[in-house]
Amino acid sequence: MNEPIKVVIAGPRGRMGREAVKLVMNTSHFKLVGAIDYKYDDTTLNEVDGFTDTHDSVKVFSNPDDCFQELLPDVLIDLTTPETGYEHTKAALLHNVRPVVGTTGFTDGQLDELKEIAESRGLGVIIAPNFAIGAVLMMKFSQMAAKYFEDVEIIEMHHDQKLDAPSGTGIKTAQMIQEVRTSKKQGHPNEKETIDGARGSDIDGMRVHSVRLPGLIAHQQVMFGGEGQLLTVRHDSHDRASFMSGVRVCVDTIMKLDTLVYGLENILD
Ligand SMILES: NC(=O)C1=CN([C@@H]2O[C@H](COP(=O)(O)OP(=O)(O)OC[C@H]3O[C@@H](n4cnc5c(N)ncnc54)[C@H](O)[C@@H]3O)[C@@H](O)[C@H]2O)C=CC1
Ligand SMILES: O=C(O)C1=N[C@H](C(=O)O)C[C@H](O)C1
Prior knowledge:
Layout: E1 5-10, H1 15-25, E2 30-36, E3 43-44, E4 59-61, H2 64-71, E5 75-78, H3 82-94, E6 98-101, H4 108-121, E7 125-127, H5 133-146, E8 151-158, H6 168-178, E9 201-203, E10 206-212, E11 218-226, E12 229-237, H7 244-254, E13 260-262
Parallel strand pairs: 1-2, 1-5, 2-4, 5-6, 6-7, 7-13, 8-10
Antiparallel strand pairs: 3-4, 8-11, 9-10, 11-12
The structure holds 1,4-dihydronicotinamide adenine dinucleotide and ligand LZUJQKHR.
The site of 1,4-dihydronicotinamide adenine dinucleotide has 23 residues, from helix 1.
Subunit structure: Homotetramer.
Keywords: Amino-acid biosynthesis, Cytoplasm, Diaminopimelate biosynthesis, Lysine biosynthesis, NAD, NADP, Oxidoreductase
Binding site for NADP(+): 39
């Protein structure tokens, strides 16, 4: 029998991290060997609020280098914050650990740098702004529609604890649309914002609007306007469990990659 894939999770106490801990613990060919958390250094996960005795073999580290050096994991799943996630991803690669990154908010420069490190070491990295299969389809359907409708506005809606705006999904959707849409500055040429930000952010002339409200989880609506018609493509994540089948596919796939893949759509059949 093959050895299980040894996984470390960064951000285990977070909303996504807790789901990922469940996923890894409940997948027979994955083994959760460690966690990275800026608190609880040198403990085991069962000593952390909300975890149980079943987590007593999961070592917690605050320093990612110590974690990778001691545990020699195969894969890091990072679900933290933009700057921390970038540092963890880089550290993982330098220790020959393959990162599956759900954390959003990386800059283009950071993505380029991580790709270069990954390729120079022949290691896979997956950076997936959205792990939900439905969200990937929503992005692909939007890309299909954008071939025929060049006027598009993206409305992404999230819980009010989210740090980055626009969301990773909003940016990725705009980038996928950009691949097929003739560049266009939308709206009236003389349009003027009388209050800053009224028209949202601007990606290649498309507008991206970010809604943040308690009660929301993760939702996005892409609206296409044409003469006498409106097309809306929408996806809703009502539960963070919606992201976990994508995380599982990434952990399974990453062992076969030797470069950086940005977006789950690139590894799905
Ligand atoms: N790709 C996807 O499908 C999804 C991505 N996300 C992204 O995942 C990230 C996490 O989201 P949530 O779980 O909602 O956030 P959260 O705020 O609930 O969790 C973040 C966790 O990171 C931990 N953390 C912060 N700094 C750290 C450090 N230096 N070392 C170790 N841990 C540290 C915090 O303790 C916290 O537990 C965000 O960037 C979010 O945008 C969220 C949902 C889905
Ligand atoms: O922070 C979140 O919650 C989410 N973040 C990701 C993003 O920025 O797109 C994915 C999903 O929308 C949930």
